[in-house]
Each structure stands twice: as C-alpha cells, then as structure tokens.
C-alpha cells in the first residue's frame, strides 16, 4: 500500500458565541485544553490546539465568538481577535447550532467571505434538535448561504460524527510535515491556562453580567519540589462586584478556588497550591491600556 502523504495546516474555529466551538476543540483533542461554559463570550483569546495523527497534524485555533456588542474595548478586542484568526489560515471551520441562524451567525460567515478562505460548516448540538426532520431543510438553507466544502451535522458533547469531521478537515489541509512535536498540545505557557481555569469558574459560578467584569492575572507561578505554587488575582471593576465574588465569610471565593485548583491539578498533572485574591481596577474592560496590560493584546 502506498502511504498517505502527511498533511499539516491551520484551521480557525469561528462562529457566534455559545455554539460550542471550545467544547468541540476539547472533544477533538480528547482532553480539556480550553475553557467552556453556558455563558456567551467565555473564550477571550485565540488559542492554538494541536491535534497530531499518524497521517498529519491539525493546528486548530479556537476563537472568541463573533458578536454584535461593540460597547467596550474588551468586546471590540474579542471580535478583532476572531477575525484576525481568519487571516493566513488554511481553512475555516464555521460552527453553527442546528436549526438556528441569527444575525451573529451571518456576521461570522461574512468574516469568512471577507477573508476569502475555504470553509467547512459544523452543525452542532444535533442532540438538542427535537424534530430531526428539520435538519435536512436547515442544511439545505446553509448550502444556499455559502459554498461550504462540507456540511457536517455533529454533537460536540456526545461525540457524534466528530471522527468524520476530523478526516474531512485533514483532507482539506495542504501536504506537509508536522510542525510541532507529537506530544505538544498548545503554544501557550502553563500560566495562561492557570488563569483560564480560574476564569472558567467565574464564568460558571456567577450570575448575569458579573463574569464579564472580571479577568484573571497570574501574579506568581513557581514550581517547588514537584508542586506548583500559583497566586492568581481576580480583577473586578467595582467594589460591589468584589463583595459578590468573595461572598459571605469568603465562602464563594473559597469554593471557586478549590474547584480551580482541582482542575489545575488534573491539567498540570501535579499538586497545586493556589491562592486567589480579588482586586479592583476601575473600568479595566473599557480601557485599551488596562486591557493590554492584562494580556488582551493583538
Ligand atoms: N446539547 C449540547 N450542548 C452543547 C454541545 N456543544 C456545546 N454545548 C454547550 O454549549 C455551551 C457553550 O459551549 P462553548 O464550547 O463554551 O461555546 P463557544 O462559546 O462557542 O466556545 C456549553 O454549555 C456547552 O456544554 C452539543 O453538542 N450539544
Ligand atoms: Mg469558546
């Protein structure tokens, strides 16, 4: 048998907030790399996730959801980051939710058209579709909106059709040798993922708009005798937000820190000593300079 040529290339995973882009990336990688929650705008950075297979390497880039809110510097940064991921990429993977098409889905598709790149569309959350007969007309509508290379109905949480989707993606990539060692999962430093795991708890535990007023900075990250010592700062915009995050007798913050630490221990594969403080930085999400200082840089 003639061996298949090795393929390697980049795939930008784009779509409106909350369609399951990050859940899909984790599922394809077979472990949690990026954070997810039921809230929109959980992902705030373009994050590389590397999938190495015997027949090649897929360099996925998870992105923030493309959305219509341009009301503060952070929201504008999120859209800019998602669109920038479409520049110089080999392929776009547009993720949509089965049965739904909104103005924000249209914005995401417009960015793909503007970048003039080939695209596969993953129609996610098919497990949620009560009436399966609606899938066919939905796929038909999608195929009329754009000349996608493939339309693939999937369920990121259940794993349905993901192997098929992955092979279609790989076949669409150029021939080439892997660029990263086979055991490498991302190009971000460990402290980045430590901050993300604290932010994941903020997104998951606190209601309404509160998580959007928070960001996490890792002030100290050290290895000492086989364990990590991590100091994290949660930045908020107002004193009232600080009080809610800390909770009565510090119970809310304590629970948040315990869960963050457990997920860090699983991620890093070693014991973690984590300390978390909440601090005030007025209007950090509206101020370009503060944003850049907190790691939101183009
Ligand atoms: N029912 C169902 N829920 C899903 C599926 N994929 C993702 N979700 C949920 O959708 C929400 C948003 O997921 P996330 O990956 O953070 O979306 P993102 O903003 O596009 O990255 C989370 O609550 C996920 O558990 C799926 O295939 N089926
Ligand atoms: Mg995400």
Give a written overview of the molecule.
The structure is a single chain. By secondary structure, the protein is of the alpha/beta class. The chain folds into 2 domains: 7-171, Rossmann fold (3-Layer(aba) Sandwich), CATH 3.40.50.300; 190-293, 2-Layer Sandwich (GMP Synthetase, Chain A, domain 3). It is 35% helix and 23% strand. It is built from 9 helices and 9 strands. The protein has helices at 21-29, 73-84, 103-115, 135-145, 162-171, 190-205, 239-246, 251-268, 288-293, and strands at 7-14, 47-53, 56-62, 91-97, 119-124, 150-153, 215-224, 227-236, 272-280. The strands form 2 sheets. A 6-stranded mixed sheet has the order 2-3-1-4-5-6, sandwiched between helices. A 3-stranded mixed sheet has the order 7-8-9. Helix 6 crosses helix 8 (251-268). The termini are far apart. 37% of the residues are buried. Bound molecules: guanosine-5'-diphosphate (GDP) and magnesium ion (MG). It is a peripheral membrane protein. Residues 198-282 form the KH type-2 domain.
Overview in brief:
Pfam families: KH_2, MMR_HSR1. With 298 residues, the protein is α/β, with parallel strands linked by helices.
List the helices and strands and how they pair.
Blueprint: E1 7-14, H1 21-29, E2 47-53, E3 56-62, H2 73-84, E4 91-97, H3 103-115, E5 119-124, H4 135-145, E6 150-153, H5 162-171, H6 190-205, E7 215-224, E8 227-236, H7 239-246, H8 251-268, E9 272-280, H9 288-293
Parallel strand pairs: 1-3, 1-4, 4-5, 5-6, 8-9
Antiparallel strand pairs: 2-3, 7-8
Helix pairs in contact: 6-8
